[in-house]
Amino acid sequence: MAAVKGVAFMDGRWMPLAEASVPILDRGFVRSDATYDVAHVWKGRFFRLMDHVERFQASMAGLRMSLPYSAQEIADIMIGCASRAGLRDAYVQVTCTRGLPPPGTRDPRLCRNRLYAFAQPFVWIADEQQRRDGLRMILSGTQRIPPEALDQRIKNFHWLDLTMGVFEAYDRDATVCAMPAADGTITEGPGFNIFVVKDGALATPHRGLFEGITRRTVMEIAADLQLRCDVRAVHAEEVVAADEIFVTSTAGGVSPVTVYEGRAIGDGRPGSLTRRITELYWKRHEDDALCTPVPYDD
Ligand SMILES: Cc1ncc(COP(=O)(O)O)c(C=O)c1O
């Protein structure tokens, strides 16, 4: 297999991504005791970089982790990954793990938290054809881990519910899934937030999910367009009856869903509001106030 192009920053050292590895005793690996954030670089500029760094720091605080780096230093490490990798369109992840406990102990307070970051080529949750024709979504039979057990606003490595949902989607001739909560509402999907459109108004679930920066951007776009956008409980039945459905993620922006539980949504093609919002989402990448240029050597 060809090595992935990219650069990593591993606890203070720079290296090619293909050479980066985590110590096997790091609790990030053996206990999923980690938090992370993902930003993207598009046409040589980070999109909403400091929003990602702030959210990452809030996630760390939520897990009682700390690092000897300021917000600007974390941003500079992310910029350094993209710049050293020479990637104009990149997926840049920054991760804080609990680290290694002293030999013979398992006390999380004794660990020195570690920072790992890397840039790799841009990742899309949907391929080109799916972005054009729309995704096929199912409602997963697996529940999302509830926020009473784990505050999902903290970006975390507890992905097994999401991964089982992905398997189920593939088993059922779909590409993505929505994860339900115990009360019959939906939460989010593996790596994305969900919006439904009905009679020209948007709605997106309010709890038990990771609050995406793409979701935030879509809410801002909706406000600019003077569209109603409710952040509230969204029941599974509303998804079936929606005029349009779309999902949002840093890994690819806004992607249409055209089939839900085997039934066509609207006329079975990406809806007009979804297309307009997608266009405005990428247009925002030209706004200097939201972008941070990456300094490249060449
Ligand atoms: C579980 C989950 N929900 C939602 C999102 C979307 O967040 P963002 O728009 O910040 O990428 C992600 C990540 O990318 C995620 O992992």
TrEMBL record:
Oxidoreductase listed as a keyword: no
Any Pfam family hit: Aminotran_4
EC class: transferase
Reactions catalysed: L-isoleucine + 2-oxoglutarate = (S)-3-methyl-2-oxopentanoate + L-glutamate; L-leucine + 2-oxoglutarate = 4-methyl-2-oxopentanoate + L-glutamate; L-valine + 2-oxoglutarate = 3-methyl-2-oxobutanoate + L-glutamate
Pathway listed: Amino-acid biosynthesis; L-valine biosynthesis; L-valine from pyruvate: step 4/4; Amino-acid biosynthesis; L-leucine biosynthesis; L-leucine from 3-methyl-2-oxobutanoate: step 4/4; Amino-acid biosynthesis; L-isoleucine biosynthesis; L-isoleucine from 2-oxobutanoate: step 4/4
Coiled-coil intervals: none
InterPro entries to which the protein is assigned, alphabetical: Aminotrans_IV (IPR001544), Aminotransferase-like (IPR036038), BCAT-like_C (IPR043132), BCAT-like_N (IPR043131), Class-IV_PLP-Dep_Aminotrnsfr (IPR050571)
Keyword Amino-acid biosynthesis (UniProt): yes
SUPFAM superfamilies reported for this sequence: D-aminoacid aminotransferase-like PLP-dependent enzymes (SSF56752)
EC number: 2.6.1.42
One of the record's GO molecular function terms: transferase activity
Keyword tags: Amino-acid biosynthesis, Branched-chain amino acid biosynthesis, Transferase
Family from the record: Belongs to the class-IV pyridoxal-phosphate-dependent aminotransferase family.
Function: Acts on leucine, isoleucine and valine.
Protein's name in the database: Probable branched-chain-amino-acid aminotransferase
Organism: Neoroseomonas terrae
